[in-house]
Design goal:
Layout (H helix, E strand, L loop, with lengths): L2 H22 L5 H32 L6 H31 L5 H8 L1 H55 L2 H17 L1 H21 L5 E2 H19 L3 E6 L8 E2 L3 H12 L8 E8 L2 E7 L12 H13 L5 E4 L3 E7 L12 H42 L7 H18 L2 H22 L1
Helix pairs in contact: 1-2, 2-3, 2-5, 3-5, 5-10, 5-11, 6-7, 7-8, 8-9, 11-12
GO molecular function: kinase activity
Protein name: Histidine kinase
Keywords: Kinase, Membrane, Transferase, Transmembrane, Transmembrane helix
């Protein structure tokens, strides 16, 4: 129970006690006022608080979003048993202990059966309202989550597209082929090694292009092969230092991020034998770092920064940790977050997601319609009961609208939360998951 709920129950207790005191109490004394407030508070906090605690417990153990039909059945059974016990307890305290209008034997022998039955119905309606309110709140959260997931899918598709364009960098391929062409005549053996390294690099690109994360060990092994190509191309103009902690090798980073950053180092900096470019790749804290001494190359066209922005965007889809960039007069450094475990992030086929989203919207409308019907029933029926008891207590006509409308609400609920529909949706989800797994393989 939250503080807000306790305050609400206090106001309900006060309003109810004032209503009964001024309209139904003949002797308006301080003693009777305090007794009325005490009795109203007991009913409000015991019935309202008890049902609230039961609802909170069921929300934790049997969330609506995970098992709707099971939760509905458990809720009906639980609130029925709970409210019978709570109502008999409250009425016993009220009539036997406080008002002393009956003995314990008279109370349990049936003197207050009608009052107990009437109070149980009111309590059940209030409890049903609380459960409906809880379901609507969870439904709103699920709808918001669905929207966020759709946005993530769209962002992921765009990021993967940009990633693929960057992975197959045409400048790198063009430069590598030029180096290979010159090596074929000058050093055929070195040309063969260069070709083998290039094949390893592009095999790695094809293997990792659909993955969200790879181990640091795999990424470092790939980076070393890539650095060998750069070393062949630039000779003594570029030097590399690797310093990776052993315990970080089994952690995860975004694939091909080092390739993009190494290419950026070469692209934006001068590298000559007299002023070699030194590139360091090392782990620092929970980050994989790549750092180079700053020897800025004059460029006719300003860099768009697509490669680095692509890495930042892909990390944003997977973790809340940021990619950090440090720049001074002497060096340029990029820190990539190293993840201890893979996040639970699944890319779905866009067309399947559109279908699922449309079905989700339709489902939301059906559920909202049912709960609008249920809430109307909860509000109107108690009013009819009160009117009947005040106007013609000898003729209990409220049974007919309560039963007729109640059957209609129950039928509506069965059509919305039918077991067959849940089974069908579950099988569809299983089929889609199998298809997605087969695509991943």
């Amino acid at each position: 129970m939250t503080r807000k709920n306790l305050i609400t129950l206090a106001w309900v207790s006060f309003a109810t006690s004032m209503f009964f005191f001024f309209l139904f109490t003949t002797e308006k004394t301080i003693e009777n006022l305090l007794l009325t407030i005490l009795i109203s508070s007991m009913y409000s906090f015991v019935l309202g608080g008890g049902n609230g605690l039961v609802n909170d417990f069921l929300n934790k153990k049997f969330p609506w979003s995970e098992a709707t039909t099971k939760r509905a059945v458990i809720s009906i059974v639980t609130i029925l048993i709970t409210n019978i016990i709570l109502v008999y307890f409250c009425n016993y305290i009220n009539f036997v202990v406080f008002q002393k209008s009956a003995t314990t034997e008279e109370y349990f022998l049936g003197k207050y059966n009608f009052i107990n039955w009437f109070t149980i119905n009111i309590a059940l309606l209030i409890s049903a309202f609380l459960h409906a309110k809880g379901f609507m709140e969870e439904l709103k959260k699920a709808s918001k989550k669905e929207v966020v997931e759709q946005k993530l899918i769209a962002k992921s598709a765009n990021a993967q597209f940009e990633s693929l364009k960057n992975q197959l960098d045409p400048h790198f391929l063009f430069n590598s082929l030029n180096v290979l062409s010159s090596l074929i005549d000058e050093n055929p053996i070195q040309a063969q090694k260069f070709t083998a390294s290039m094949s390893k690099i592009y095999r790695y690109v094809l293997e990792q292009k659909d993955k969200e994360l790879v181990t640091v060990e795999d990424e470092i092994e790939f980076a070393k092969i890539y650095c060998e190509l750069l070393k062949t191309r630039f000779e003594d103009s570029v030097n590399f230092i690797f310093d990776i902690k052993r315990e970080d090798l089994k952690k995860f980073v975004v694939p091909l991020s080092l390739q993009l950053l190494l290419e950026n180092c070469i692209k934006h900096n001068l590298a000559t034998s007299s002023k070699p470019l030194l590139i360091k790749i090392f782990t620092e804290g929970e980050c994989l770092c790549i750092e180079n001494n700053l020897q800025v190359r004059e460029q006719i066209k300003e860099s768009a920064g697509i490669g680095l922005a692509n890495i930042v965007q892909r990390y944003a889809l997977l973790t809340k940790r940021n990619v950090f960039i440090e720049k001074s007069d002497d060096y340029f450094k990029v820190k990539l977050p190293v993840l201890a475990e893979k996040p639970n992030f699944v890319n779905n086929v866009a067309s399947d997601d559109d279908v699922v989203y449309e079905r989700a919207l339709k489902r939301v409308k059906e559920i909202k319609s049912f709960y609008s019907n249920l809430i109307s029933y909860i509000v109107v029926i108690p009013l009819l009961v009160i009117i009947n008891m005040i106007s013609t207590p000898e003729h209990l006509w409220f049974y007919w609208p309560m039963l007729g409308w109640g059957i209609g609400v129950a039928a509506h609920g069965l059509s919305v939360f039918s077991i067959g529909r849940n089974w069908e949706e579950r099988k569809i989800r299983e089929i889609l998951e199998k298809e997605n797994n087969s695509y991943g393989k």
